[in-house]
Design brief:
By secondary structure, the chain is mainly beta. Helix content is 5%, strand content 50%. It contains one helix and 24 strands. It has a four-stranded antiparallel sheet, with no helix packed on it. Strands 2-3-4-5 form a four-stranded antiparallel sheet, with no helix packed on it. A hairpin with a 3-residue loop joins strand 14 and strand 15. It is globular, with a radius of gyration of 22 Å.
Length: 264
């Protein structure tokens, strides 16, 4: 009877889902955070924020600022290259390029180019080009800054964009069905998988993302389809950012930074 009971218990335990251990973090620093939208910090220690729709760059008490009230709200900022910052003013279908002193070096209104388009997503690509997703054709393409022309590189997307992210060589997006895709500079599109429900997301690679859901953070692996909690202490927070093993958590009053090593 005892052997039978032990067998039943062992069989039941094998049916229980495996519990993922939380990924530990190591606290690094805390700074006060005013009424601003934090965008990131570059390799030189400059902090980028948006305050009352003014783009700011700050370090050691020094502040550089750029404001353009005529273009409305800054929808997105691409900080990949501190020497060529891209500000996307979606409502006015315009991007502004800034140098490292936040001096405007170029302004492109996509309604006024040779073949007008409606930009739904814009980001910096390699070799003096911009990623642009055109809402009219529903195609992704490249805008050549030196030549002033646009070339589509993909077929039309099957669903509308919910989120996008880019680097020099790849454009990532999540559609309204939470399917995640990646396109390279030659227009080759790869399906990465379905993303769990999220409030905020950051794509780390073609296999890994971090998601925020109900004030909790999770590391998700597409290939393994595993969702592992990240052991932060904040009970509620506005947003997060991960860069090179540094996790920043933004509340309405402070920024907490942690050292984190994500699973391989």
């Amino acid at each position: 009877m005892k052997h039978l009971l032990l067998l039943i218990i062992l069989s039941f335990q094998t049916l229980l889902p495996a519990q993922e251990l939380a990924i530990p973090v190591k606290f690094l620093s805390n700074t006060k955070n005013g009424p601003q939208r934090y965008l990131g910090t570059d390799a030189f220690g400059w902090k980028y924020t948006i305050v009352n729709n003014e783009f700011r760059k700050e370090k050691d008490g020094r502040a550089l600022k750029y404001r353009n009230l005529s273009l409305g709200e800054i929808y997105k900022a691409d900080l990949q290259n501190p020497l060529q910052i891209v500000l996307f003013y979606k409502k006015f279908n315009t991007v502004v390029l800034l140098d490292n002193q936040l001096t405007e070096t170029a302004r492109i209104n996509f309604s006024n180019i040779n073949e007008p388009l409606i930009a739904e997503a814009v980001g910096l690509a390699s070799q003096n080009r911009l990623w642009v997703y055109d809402l009219t054709t529903q195609k992704l393409g490249l805008y050549y800054l030196g030549q002033g022309n646009f070339k589509t590189i993909t077929p039309p997307f099957s669903d509308t964009l919910k989120y996008y992210q880019n680097d020099y060589n790849y454009f990532y997006w999540i559609d309204q069905s939470n399917n995640c895709f990646m396109a390279n500079l030659f227009g080759s599109v790869s399906s990465l998988g379905n993303v769990p429900a999220y409030d905020q997301v950051q794509i780390l690679s073609n296999n890994e993302i971090i998601i925020k859901k109900d004030s909790k953070l999770y590391f998700y692996n597409f290939e393994k389809q595993t969702q592992t909690p990240i052991a932060i202490i904040e009970k509620s927070f506005e947003s997060f950012q991960y860069t090179a093993q540094i996790l920043s958590i933004f509340t309405d009053a402070e920024i907490n930074t942690y050292k984190i090593t994500l699973p391989k």
